[in-house]
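Ticket #4471: structure output looks truncated?

Reporter: J.K.
Steps to reproduce: submitted the chain below (284 residues) through the standard prediction queue, then opened the result file.
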Amino acid sequence: MQEALTALDAGDALRARVARLVLTPIFQRVVIGLILINAVTLGLETSDSVMETFGGVLHALDAALLYLFTAELLLRIYAFRGRFFRDPWGLFDFAVVAIAWMPASGPLAVLRALRVLRVLRLISVVPSLRNVVEAMLGALPGMGSIVLLMALLFYVFAVMATKLFGGEMEEQFGTLGASLFTLFQLMTLDDWANIVKPAMELQPYALVFFMPFIIISTFVVLNLFIGVIVESIQTLRDDRGADKIVAEEAAKSAERMDIRALVQEVRALRAEVAELRAQPNNTP
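Returned output as attached by the reporter:
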């Protein structure tokens, strides 16, 4: 029984050392460097001339990097055990590395292109990128109303555009679907002049229709999306700042409690010493 407890304590100590290792800044920088190297190799593999000369080296380097990423992932799983799989970013890293191990031949050849997903591990490794993604995900509920507003805007203007310009500009506004696509093109300001100018030649008042749509969709609704994301980022920073303050206060409170307990122990020890000194010497 004692040997089992000793082995368990040794395993916990080793796990704690591994956890400290994977959390050190140096280890994180090494992982970031490997991800960047992998990104470069994946980009070079898209060049036929480079592959003809260095194809074997790039494939070997890619395989070595995959083994390193797998080893790093196994270290994190060993160090954190169940906590690793409760962390969404841990599951993301696990899925990305697991996809890279899937066979990329036959009908699964498309999975070979998914190897580039390993570059996305930068998001989980770099804290600033992770904060931005978490803020964007946190902003999704607030975007629902904006998406509904944009859908109503597009539908109303698409119906109006089909009725106003469908007969003369069938390619752009002949059907409701074509009108929706053209209005989306106008929202992105992609070649909008070649759509608005022919419409103005056919109907001079067309500018009165297109200008409000472009202003509302491009400069108002899209800025609402940006505002929601910025607010989510600020809220995330405030929450983490508050959590940090609470953690610091808790640490200070625990330290004060430790000091108070130590003072009480010293006082109790002094009282015992005083009692011993006050007792008469009974030695013969």
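Triage note (M.O.): checked the attachment and the full token line is present. The chain has a mean pLDDT of 77.
Status: closed, working as intended.
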